[in-house]
Amino acid sequence: MDLYKEIIINILSKEKAEISFPNINIDINKIVSDKCYYALKSIKDILEDTSLDDKECFMKIEKIICVYEEIGMGVSFRHDF
């Protein structure tokens, strides 16, 4: 599924749904943009973490996968351990 759609579905799935939304006033693009910025910032922080050496690369990848999970995104078969 398209990443954009996955983000929207995850965000909306946590909201109380009603049959109609006659006066809905949300900026989906801003919500997705904010989530993407958060994820990219978190990933950058992880990759720049000098407390881990190259031998601990697996842990950096694990932290990146956790960032995806924090924003409600899965990495499907990559995190099944």
Main traits of this protein?
81 residues, mainly alpha, 0% strand, elongated
Describe the structure.
The two termini are 23 Å apart. The model has no long low-confidence stretch (mean pLDDT 78). The protein has one domain. The chain is mainly α and 81 residues long. It is built from 3 helices and no strands. The protein has helices at residues 3-13, 28-47, 57-70. Helix 2 packs antiparallel against helix 3 (57-70).
Summed up:
The chain is 56% helix and 0% strand. It has 81 residues and is mainly alpha-helical.
Unreliable stretches, pLDDT < 50, 5 or more residues?
Answer: none
Give the biggest sheet.
Answer: none
Percent helix among the residues?
Answer: 55-70%
Number of helices: 3
Name the average pLDDT: 78
The succession of helices and strands, N to C, reads HHH
How would you sum up the global shape?
A: elongated
Strand content: under 5%
Evaluate the radius of gyration.
16 Å
Please tell me the total number of domains.
1
Separation, N- and C-terminal Cα atoms: 23 Å
Number of strands: 0
Based on secondary structure, the structural category is mainly alpha
